[in-house]
Amino acid sequence: MSCQEGFVEKLCKSLGLPVPTREYRFHPKRKWRFDYAWPDKKIAIEVEGGAWIYGRHNHPGGFLKDIEKYNSAVVLGWRVLRYTPQQIAQGEWIEDLKSLGL
């Protein structure tokens, strides 16, 4: 995760939104974690880096592992929102969280 340390938490707090848990391990058997999670609401944010540099998420193996992770999360009842670091920095995720009831 490449977003500025504590940025999401500080912004949530300043807006009166619940502060997320970072690196939340959501799966009972796998070691998968969400970048940010609100476990009581089963809402998560994943920050997808490397969109323009072809990082891990853009290679076939990483892409397929991400699909498995996200599908497993949905089966467990999670709502997963995915953003680029730029979208996080610009606050594009805030209205989405509010619309989901945070």
Task: Describe the 3D structure.
It is globular and about 35 Å long. It is of the alpha+beta class and 102 residues long. A four-stranded mixed β-sheet has the order 1-2-3-4, with helices on both faces. It is built from four helices and four strands; from the N terminus they run H-E-E-E-H-E-H-H. Strand 1 and strand 2 form a beta hairpin. The protein has one domain (7-99): 3-Layer(aba) Sandwich (Endonuclease, Chain A), CATH 3.40.960. It has helices at 7-15, 60-75, 85-90, 93-99, and strands at residues 21-25, 33-38, 43-47, 79-83.
The CATH architecture: 3-Layer(aba) Sandwich
CATH topology: Endonuclease, Chain A
Task: Trace the largest sheet across and list its strands.
Answer: 1-2-3-4
How much of the polypeptide forms β-strand, as a percent range?
15-25%
Order of helices and strands, N to C? HEEEHEHH
Instruction: Quote the distance from N terminus to C terminus.
Output: 22 Å
Total number of helices: 4
CATH H-level superfamily: VSR Endonuclease
Q: Can you count the beta strands?
A: 4
Helical residues, percent? 25-40%
Level-1 CATH class name: Alpha Beta
Radius of gyration (CA) equals: 13 Å
Gross morphology: globular
> Class by helix and strand content?
alpha+beta
Unreliable residue stretches: none
Mean pLDDT: 88
> Which sheet architecture does the biggest sheet show?
4 strands, mixed
Q: How many domains would you count in the coordinates?
A: 1
